[in-house]
Design goal:
By secondary structure, the chain is mainly α. The chain contains eleven helices and no strands.
Length: 237
Amino acid sequence: MTREPRKKLVERTTRIAAALARLYSEARISLDFTTPWQCLVATILSAQCTDKRVNQVTPRLFGEIPDARAMGAASTDRVQRLIMDTGFFRQKTRALKGAASAILERFGGEVPTRMEDLVTLPGVGRKTANVLLGHVFGQPGLVVDTHVRRLAQRLGLTRETDPEKIERDLQALVEPAEWTAFSMRLILHGRTVCHARKPRCEACALAADCPRVGVAGAPPARAVAGTSRGGASKNHV
């Protein structure tokens, strides 16, 4: 498969971003929270769980354990009971209590605002950190979850499979001010149209700019994925 010229790739990404903006003007995560700590907790709980279920669990959780200090003082059994319905509750409890301890010991009880600090917290990877950066701290944050990974590949915006490499590829195609909204809109489009097993290509507003890479039954994909920010690369578009 030939590589798409860089200029064409950027132009196509711009059209995709504009179409997504028309479809999903409200580009906000559906998790409910009011503080940075609550956003951190809700995002950790959302792993392998729907946002709807998390939102059913967190009102009681936040009512009883509202902040990092309260989480640090809470017993493991108590936390597990409160979050059990989100699944993987033992691992998530370890992550929540570990994050609380780190925040209390190293950050004065406040959720840190920098990527390099956030990813040192137990249970926090770049995805969770980018959620906080973009939706809480007003900083550019490009979230790569399962939907973003799938759509970025199908749309020919990346050839990568590693989330961090996909993140860098997309960052090179979209202005920083648009990172958060762009990734959130990809997530929403993945949930509503571009499903994993049976994408609704016939109803997709992105169809004219989508090579449908890897979609069963799709026509041969046209040229995709060229060079990265700063020049040609084997690893990044």
